[in-house]
């Protein structure tokens, strides 16, 4: 018996989105297409259900997002070929070990990045030719969650012009806070349009998902630097020739057409 469906899931809506995204083959193209689809959708503050004294509820929203649920939803859709893969992918992206518990939610973005690198969902973008700095942080802004110490390695703001040539469409970008008790204050998706680098993100101040030139966002916001990661392609197992031939043999010529991959 499968796991219960998350609250708010519209299977039909997910199927429609996956059908459109299925025309795109590479991960970057799928993320570009899916993130574009949700432009102008509403910003939704505090979209997740759960706290230190309230049971966590696995939720899905395709009508509004904060900056984190926007990139989580796009990433899970881009990696999926059906509804079950989407929901399981979102579960794995959002929670440590995929276990729906408030304490296992990736509350801080350094935790989110680390856990999803470990699962092979994303990887760091190599920045060997770009200066980096390490910032010490004592994370304590989530009520009910114990204090966590972490080290944040990022490209400092003055060096970001040297990072831009390395960015690709579909990259995820995290903006490192200058506060000593917070690691990341915002996140979004990079889109390259020729030589122009764009940022797609769910903006609290604007109240919706928007696209803007990345350098404009950088100029308008104070930050210690950025972290950039790249989603990994999903490797799907090939069907064995024996099983494929057997399936073809059993199918009646007058029966339905080939199933969708």
Name the descriptors.
single chain; 261 residues; alpha+beta; putative xylanase like fold; eight-stranded antiparallel beta sheet; globular; disordered C terminus
Brief characterization of the structure:
This protein is α+β, with helices and mostly antiparallel strands and 261 residues long. It has 8 helices and 12 strands.
Fold and architecture overview:
It is built from 8 helices and 12 strands. The protein has 261 residues and is α+β, with helices and mostly antiparallel strands. It has a single domain (11-231), classed as Roll (putative xylanase like fold), CATH 2.30.260. The strands form 3 sheets. Strands 5, 6, 7, 8, 9, 10, 11 and 12 form an 8-stranded antiparallel beta sheet that branches. Strands 1-4 form a two-stranded parallel ribbon. β10 and β11 (208-213) form a beta hairpin. α2 packs across α3 (67-78) and α3 (67-78) packs across α4 (83-94). It is globular. Mean pLDDT is 90; it is low at 239-261.
């Amino acid at each position: 018996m499968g796991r219960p469906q998350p609250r708010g899931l519209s299977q039909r809506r997910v199927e429609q989105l996956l059908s459109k995204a299925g025309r795109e083959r590479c991960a970057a193209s799928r993320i570009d297409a899916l993130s574009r689809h949700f432009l102008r959708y509403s910003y939704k503050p505090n979209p997740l259900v759960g706290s230190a004294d309230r049971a966590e509820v696995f939720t899905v929203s395709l009508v509004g997002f904060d900056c984190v649920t926007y990139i989580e939803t796009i990433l899970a859709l881009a990696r999926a070929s059906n509804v079950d893969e989407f929901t399981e992918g979102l579960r794995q992206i959002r929670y440590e070990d995929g276990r729906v518990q408030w304490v296992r939610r990736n509350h801080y973005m350094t935790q989110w990045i680390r856990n999803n690198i470990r699962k092979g969902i994303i990887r760091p973008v190599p920045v060997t030719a770009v200066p980096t700095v390490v910032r010490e942080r004592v994370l304590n802004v989530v009520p009910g969650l114990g204090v966590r110490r972490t080290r944040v390695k990022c490209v400092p703001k003055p060096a970001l012009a040297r990072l831009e040539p390395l960015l690709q469409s579909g990259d995820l970008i995290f903006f490192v806070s200058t506060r000593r008790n917070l690691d990341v204050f915002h996140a979004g998706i990079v889109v390259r349009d020729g030589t122009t680098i764009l940022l797609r993100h769910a903006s609290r101040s604007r109240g919706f998902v928007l696209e803007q030139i990345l350098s404009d966002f950088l100029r308008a916001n104070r930050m210690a630097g950025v972290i950039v990661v790249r989603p990994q392609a999903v490797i799907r197992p090939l069907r064995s020739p024996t099983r494929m031939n057997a399936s073809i043999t059993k199918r009646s010529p007058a029966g339905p057409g080939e199933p969708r991959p």
